[in-house]
Amino acid sequence: MSSTPRHMFLQLDRNNTSPAERLALWQDLMSAAGKVHIPDPETFTGYFTSLALGDLRTMRVRSGEFRYVRDRQMARNVSRDHVMINLTESGRIAGEVAGRRVMAGAGAVVISRLASPMDVVLQEEAEWLALIIPRAILDNYMAWSPRFDARVLQPESTQAILIGGLLRSLDRLSETISPRETTCAARASLVFLATCLGGATPALPRVETTEDLVRSIRRYMARRLADPDLGPDLICREFAMSRSKLYRVMGDTTNIASVIKRTRLRAVRSDILSGKHASRSLADIAKGRGLTDERNFRRSFVSEFGYPPSALRKQVGANGNSRHAELEAGGSDLERWFQGLDDHD
Q1: Residue where a domain stops, chosen among 196, 229, 252
Q2: Residues in CB range of 197: below 8 A, 6 or more apart
Q3: Does residue 174 belong to any structural domain of this protein?
Q4: How confident is the model at residue 326 (pLDDT cuts 50, 70, 90)?
Q5: Using one digit for the tens of pLDDT, what is the confidence trace for 162-218?
Q6: What is the C-alpha to C-alpha distance for residues 45 and 1, in angstroms, rounded to an integer?
Q7: Domain ends where: 196, 231, 257?
């Protein structure tokens, strides 16, 4: 299992990808814990760049209109929570986060959690900056409160101006930044945010054995995707725990079978996008990821992504070359980072 690249970049233009490819690649990149819907793939374009700062990650995203949905079940299935600090540079973000209406124009800052339901539309050629922080890291600097979730800081507010300045400064950092400077930037950002948000009293130190166990289970699942027997029983045997403890550790409402199935489907989509398996049948690719029932696989693929695997293969085959492997890597890498599956963790 490889590590997520420190610097990530993806640009989808009409002259380098087909509409179907842009749809699939943007979905793969942006849907680590949700689903992406693009109303007009024909005209859609997207730009994404990201830099890791230790355990934190910055992003700049610019794109045509799309809708991002994370329903309650998807939110419950998030085992490694993150806090997202977003600055709208242009366009508009509108919808609902954690059951609250949000509307953010240029200059506004939106705060949310990865483990909260979300249904938002990125409109008017939206461009935004983001700082993504693992919740376990942020808890060492400030006591999180539900009042922060779905909070919108208006452009003229002192907090939005200060936090916006921080995100713009982080966006200027080069990927050649030294380890020492990286540590400085990450710590300074965390202290600054805690002070700006008025929650600078650190939470009590906590033992992270549960999070470590969850990460180990996730890694085990990722390594065993090809095993058709992968499921709660196999995981329980591997980690010598009861089924009740497994669900307690992963979250009482987590549907482990659904998590495994979705991970397998995303892996198949990445395999198709890479163009490296042109000589293999779709059924064989699916079988290699543990999806042994061909009919069920095709039906599930359409349900998950909105198009059949054959249509995606046709588009990749018509336009395929080595760039596909580079373009699709971002989605898999970013999802691995969110789940804490990097080898160096």
Answers
A1: 196
A2: 111, 142, 148, 159
A3: yes
A4: very low
A5: 999 999 999 999 888 898 999 999 999 999 999 998 765 554 444 446 777 888 888
A6: 31
A7: 196
Residue at 15 is within a domain:
no
312 pLDDT above the threshold of 80: yes
Domain match, 52 and 151 both: yes
Per residue in 247-274, pLDDT tens?
888 875 568 888 889 889 988 988 888 7
Question: Does one domain contain both 189 and 215?
Answer: no
Three-class SS of the chain: CCCCCCEEEEEECCCCCCHHHHHHHHHHHHCCCCEEECCCCCCCCEEEEEEEECCEEEEEEEECCEEEEECHHHHHCCCCCEEEEEEEEEEEEEEEECCEEEEECCCCEEEEECCCCEEEEEEEEEEEEEEEEEHHHHCCCCCCCHHHCCEEECCCCHHHHHHHHHHHHHHCCCCCCCHHHHHHHHHHHHHHHHHHCCCCCCCCCCCCHHHHHHHHHHHHHHHCCCCCCCCHHHHHHHHCCCHHHHHHHHCCCCCHHHHHHHHHHHHHHHHHHHCCCCCCCHHHHHHHCCCCCHHHHHHHHHHHHCCCHHHHHHHHHHHCCCHHHHHHHHHHHHHHHHHCCCCCC
Domain range holding 115?
31-196
* Same structural domain, 153 and 240: no
Whether residue 203 is contained in a domain is answered as no
Evaluate if pTM is beyond 0.90.
Answer: no
CATH label of the domain that carries residue 329: 1.10.10.60
Is 283 inside a domain boundary? yes
